[in-house]
Amino acid sequence: MAKKTVFSCEACGHETFKWMGKCPKCGGWDTIKEFRIEKEELSQQEKPIFVSEEDLPEERIILGINEMDRVLGGGITCGSSILLGGDPGIGKTTLCFEIASKMVELGFDALYVSGEESLRQLSSRKKRLHLKGSFPILATNHVEDILRAVSDKHYKFAVIDSIQSTYNSRLPMLPGSVSQIKDVSTRLIMEMKRSETAHVFIGHVTKEGAIAGPKILEHMVDTVLYFEGDKTLPYRMLRAIKNRYGPIDEVGIFQMRTEGLVSVENPSEFFVADRGDISSGSTLFPYVTGSRPIVLEVQAITPKTTFSMPKRLSLGYDINRLFILIAVLEKVLEKPFFDRDIYINVTGGMKVADPAIDLAVAGSILSSYNDMNIGKDTALFGEIGLTGEIRKVINMEARLKECERLGIKRVLCPRGAERIPGVETIPLKTIRDLHKQLVEKNDA
Ligand SMILES: Nc1ncnc2c1ncn2[C@@H]1O[C@H](COP(=O)(O)OP(=O)(O)OP(=O)(O)O)[C@@H](O)[C@H]1O
Ligand SMILES: [Mg+2]
Q1: How far does CA 312 lie from the centroid of its chain?
Q2: Is the backbone peptide bond immediately before 162 cis, with ω within 30 degrees of 0?
Q3: Pocket test for ligand 1, best of 83, 87, 90 (most atoms within 8 A of CB)
């Protein structure tokens, strides 16, 4: 064993060569402490080997929680490390309880480590969720206890709730500090990769929404998932930010009920269910995320303003794209928007980065501006260029098919879209065509 002396900040984990009164990184006073670390000698026994799919096939377990399987890229990969982040109270513990229970139902051993809730709290949660599979719970904050538990018995799956509350008592830093998280996660990942235990680290997020702790944590794990959604609404979205075993554009949609999280199988119906009798400023947009199309509602209001600086606000649509879109509408259609506030909302809390939403946003603005109803059976998609041209987008066929499935009769879209029986496609070349279709025809 080699011993080394290190000076490190208790608060932020910053390392220095000598003792200092003030940490140069976080500015904390008297936070730099000296401590000794013991490094184990590196093993010299590993040799390079050739690997092939026949010798070491990829093993996946399909959980049967459809939305989770989808986001993971077709089930959980054996031995993989997953980091699950999300706002407080969004449902991270609930989701992991359900996964652990499913693993037990499928005949695998699962372990739940909780450093945040007592056994009594966890048992009442288990009762409320009516979980079929029963798994052992380890209530501890010590990384050594966890390492002992996973080396004593082989678990196929383990949850660490949460990585910030787990600490190494030999380090002087507080739990949740950068050095503690680095140390704890490195040791847990090494041990669980060795024993091929698939594991989920639950991670707290900062005020800005990033996972608290070092960025290196996100590099070390195989998959980073974010659980997000408006807590006042009953549904939650699970998104992959990084995935070594699958695509990252898939979104899993869950509904939060008393009995736990339930996968939403038909999100389009779910997102447009509350639409009711529509008025001006509302359009439908077939969004494609990952392999799945979802029809969303885009709303706009354009009230008159007496201020010299009109307001532009957008929820779910990129604000810079909105500025550009308004400029294009003003230039090409010669419509003045300087005396109008413009507010855009993509309902359901979806954040859409797909440029195909441009046409639906433009349609909503024109509909609100002219105070006319576009109709319940019309959807729009297409990217708008700076000269007002409507450009082709990907997955046009999938978007049209989803519209047809929802009973949408008319779709305004870029030219070149395939015809789908049951849906009338109206190809548009520029936003002048959009104006003609929506406003001039309505006036006539
Ligand atoms: N009895 C209940 N009925 C319905 N929903 C409940 C009930 N109890 C809890 N919930 C829901 O579960 C959510 C809490 O879920 P959970 O504890 O899994 O969140 P979390 O992300 O683990 O939170 P934390 O960051 O605090 O650990 C609450 O926001 C609430 O919506
Ligand atoms: Mg929790």
Answers
A1: 26
A2: yes
A3: 90
| Number of domains into which the chain is organized | 3
Q: How far is CA 323 from CA 311, 361, 442, in A?
A: 11, 12, 27
Best CA proximity match to 310, nearest among 326, 328, 334, 333: 326
pLDDT of residue 158: 96
Q: What are phi and psi of 265, to 5 degrees?
A: -80, -35
In this structure, is residue 49 part of a structural domain?
A: no
pLDDT, residue 443, reads 67
Q: Which residues of 210-236 are buried (b: 16+ CB within 10 A; e: fewer)?
A: ebbbbeebbebbbbbbbbbbeeeeebb
* Tally of CB atoms within 10 A around 255: 15
Which residues of the chain, if any, have pLDDT below 70?
1-3, 37-44, 273-274, 276-277, 443-444
Report which ligand 1 atom has the smallest distance to the Cα of 94: 18
Q: Are 312 and 342 in contact (CB under 8 A)?
A: yes
Residues contacting 222, CB < 8 A, separation 6+: 77, 80, 81, 82, 242, 243, 244, 245
Residue with tokens 């200092």: 20
Domain boundary among 221, 237, 264: 264
Please tell me whether residues 122 and 220 are part of one structural domain.
yes
**Shared domain check, 35 and 85:** no
Q: Give the sign of the dihedral formed by CA 18, CA 21, CA 27, CA 28.
A: positive
pTM to 2 decimal places: 0.81
The DSSP-derived string for 73-136 is TSSEETT-EEEEEE-TTSSHHHHHHHHHHHHHHTT--EEEEESSS-HHHHHHHHHHTT-SS---
State the residue range of the domain holding 336. 270-443
User: From atom 4 of ligand 1, which residue's Cα is the shortest distance away?
Assistant: 258
Distance between CA 89 and CA 374 in Å, rounded? Answer: 39
Q: How far from 50 is each of 56, 193, 427, CA to CA, in Å?
A: 10, 19, 54
Pocket of ligand 1 (CB under 6 A): 86, 88-94, 116, 128, 231, 256, 258
Which atom of ligand 1 is least distant from the CA of 96? 18
Question: Which pLDDT tens digit goes with each residue over 205-244?
Answer: 887 777 777 778 899 999 999 998 877 777 888 989 999 9
Q: Looking at the domain assignment, is residue 84 inside a domain?
A: yes
